[in-house]
Design brief:
Involved in the post-translational conjugation of arginine to the N-terminal aspartate or glutamate of a protein. This arginylation is required for degradation of the protein via the ubiquitin pathway. Keywords: Acyltransferase, Transferase, Ubl conjugation pathway. The protein has 586 residues and is of the alpha+beta class. Helices cover 32% and strands 22% of the residues. The chain is built from 17 helices and 20 strands. The strands form 3 sheets. A 9-stranded mixed sheet has the order 10-11-12-13-14-15-5-16-17, with helices on both faces. Helix 5 packs across helix 8 and helix 7 packs across helix 8. It is elongated.
Length: 586
């Protein structure tokens, strides 16, 4: 597809250069401004120009586009992608599909199986740019190692303890311990008595409560305290009182609560209900999964629907986003607002490209068109997840996913990634250039981001020459140091056969080279001088002109101020884009 054809159909990109930005890193949690990036504010951006920016290491957050300064930032972030047609799902990824199908068939309750930590919480998250600060970027990226359901059950019990204190069931002059809920591993379930196979969680909070009461009584004996009913509370009595209080406020979705010998036990319920909601209007496409995988082709008990809609504010999506941020990422309520949500996940500079109406267009466009979208996932009408994506000429770029914490055990982050890869495969028939699935940034120095490499065969973008390098080739380089010139493939192979002394010499040469390039991440087209910036496209008072035309209108003092800005701008976006996108002078 020619740049001329794409620009004529997609309009023109208008940007303002924000320059270098330093902020607290959302990955390594460095207390200083160690996260360093270059930013652009985009008023309008064609999908073709954004595709080109992606292929130079940029990403967007709302209308803000940013690129890490790889040799300087604390956590170098490499653009990662895979060719959808080459994707081979792992056994774990296949299990994710089967688990959700079993849930739809009614064979699996949400709380029935152990849930491994869903590392997809961070899927496609970009938190290093300044636009995320209003969301609490430093705190949000911390993945809670405790299952959300365990925290909720603990809070459920603690609330019951407080109600027992208020009603006089428990003494009010005691500092009671916080409850602790433990998961019952499948291996232990098999050793339990018959009939307890579905026991999922348990708490022995009644025992420390009784111990706290007894300890307080012992300390008060010399003060002539009178023994009361509470003095003879047993773990069995305490657990019964807590159960009674928990039942008063309603059960816990998907779980049945019982007590036994002082323990509070949580069992999987026999059925999980789903709320009924009307389908929203203006949905561009829908994929319904109702067919059973069994041989008799029975209709599934639950229906999964996926709806692709243009990016816009949806109150239902916003309520789900709030629940997700509060329960999964422990954000403070005051850090979440409609304004910050819109700025992060709704606002987009991408100029929509509608689907082709006839076969005469030079460009091939998928049936939905190009632009920014929200992919809704619904079970029996209930919104359970939203994927925020960009559909571009070469790829589907995954930006963010938020999901219903009640469905955490379904690994919706993994499942949505598999669905998005399938979408690329299906739509390549309509748009031959649509080949890739972009997973956002890969950070080798951050363990919680390494899961993206599990989508194979993936490749990383070299930060110096902007060549794509197979992950398996890049990994040995990244194991040595977080920032590496990935396209130095010959050096990667040489490390296998070189002697120890030769390898040390090579590492020293690499370090010296990177020190020389650390101030300016020079690429193959960035030997910049005054002549290089003469064709940069500029907007001035609504007019379009080249920098060489502007020279006739400005004095030497203004020229000295502008040229460093234009040199830096040309370096980070490349020669072609600097001459195609419109640089708006402030």
């Amino acid at each position: 597809m020619s740049s001329k054809a794409s620009s004529s159909r997609g309009g023109e990109s208008i940007i303002a250069d924000c320059g270098r930005n330093t902020s607290i890193c959302g990955y390594c949690k460095s207390p200083t401004g160690s996260s360093i990036s270059h930013g652009l504010w985009t008023e309008r951006l064609t999908v073709y120009d954004y595709q080109a920016l992606l292929d130079r290491g940029w990403r967007r957050s709302g209308c803000y586009v940013y690129k890490p300064e790889m040799a300087k930032t604390c956590c170098p972030s490499y653009t990662i992608r895979l060719r959808a047609s080459d994707f081979v799902p792992s056994k774990e990824q296949q299990r994710v599909r089967r688990k959700l199908e079993r849930f739809l068939d009614g064979e699996l309750d949400l709380k029935q199986r152990e849930r491994k930590e869903d590392t997809d919480v961070s899927f496609s998250r970009e938190v290093s740019e300044p636009l995320r600060k209003p969301h609490g970027s430093g705190k949000r990226e911390q993945t809670n190692e405790v299952e959300p359901i365990i925290k909720e059950l603990s809070d459920h019990i603690d609330n019951a303890v407080q109600r027992c204190i208020q009603s006089g069931e428990f003494p009010s002059n005691i500092q009671f311990p916080k409850s602790s809920v433990k998961k019952i591993l499948s291996a232990k379930r098999k050793k339990l008595a018959e009939g307890s196979e579905e026991l999922l969680y348990t708490s022995n909070i009644a025992f420390p409560i009784v111990a706290a009461i007894k300890q307080t009584q012992a300390s008060q004996k010399g003060e002539g305290s009178k023994k009361t009913e509470e003095n003879v509370l047993s773990p069995e009595t305490v657990s019964e009182k807590l159960l009674s209080e928990m039942n008063k406020v309603g059960g816990f979705p998907g779980l049945a609560i019982k007590v036994c010998k002082g323990h509070i036990n949580f069992f999987s319920a026999t059925q999980v209900t789903s709320s009924e909601r009307e389908e929203g209007e203006n949905l561009l496409s829908a994929t319904t999964t109702t067919k059973s995988s069994s041989n008799n082709l029975q209709v599934r008990k639950r229906k999964l629907e996926m709806h692709l809609k243009r990016s816009s504010f949806d109150p239902e999506e916003y309520e789900l986003y709030k629940r997700y941020q509060l329960r999964v990422h422990n954000d403070e309520p005051e850090s979440i607002s409609k304004t910050s949500y819109k700025r992060f996940l709704v606002d987009t500079p991408l100029i929509e490209v509608p689907p082709s109406r006839d076969g005469g267009d030079d460009e091939e466009v998928p049936p939905c068109g190009f632009g920014s979208y929200h992919q809704q996932y619904r079970v029996d009408g209930r919104l359970i997840a939203v994927g925020v994506i960009d559909i571009l000429p070469k790829c589907l770029s995954s930006k963010y996913l938020f999901w219903d914490p009640d469905f955490a055990s379904l690994s919706l982050g993994n499942y949505s990634a598999l669905q998005e890869i399938d979408w690329v495969k299906q739509n390549q028939a309509h748009c031959s250039s649509l080949e890739y699935y972009y997973l956002g940034y890969y950070i080798h120095s951050c363990n919680k981001m390494r899961y993206k490499a599990a989508y194979r065969p993936s490749e990383l973008l070299c930060p110096l020459r902007y060549q794509w390098v197979p992950f398996e080739v890049a990994k040995p380089l990244l194991d040595k140091k977080p920032y590496s010139v990935l396209s130095d493939l010959n050096k990667a192979s040489e490390t296998v056969v070189e002697s120890t002394s030769e390898r040390k010499d090579m590492v020293q040469r690499d370090d010296d080279k990177e020190m020389n390039n650390s101030d300016e991440e020079l690429d193959s087209d960035s030997s910049v001088n005054c002549n290089d910036i003469t064709n940069i496209l500029i907007s001035l008072n609504g007019a379009r002109l080249r920098y060489k035309d502007l020279l006739r209108m400005i004095n030497m003092g203004v020229r000295k101020q502008l040229e460093p800005v234009f040199i830096s701008y040309r370096r980070v976006v490349g020669a072609e884009l600097s001459e195609r996108m419109v640089f708006e002078l402030q």
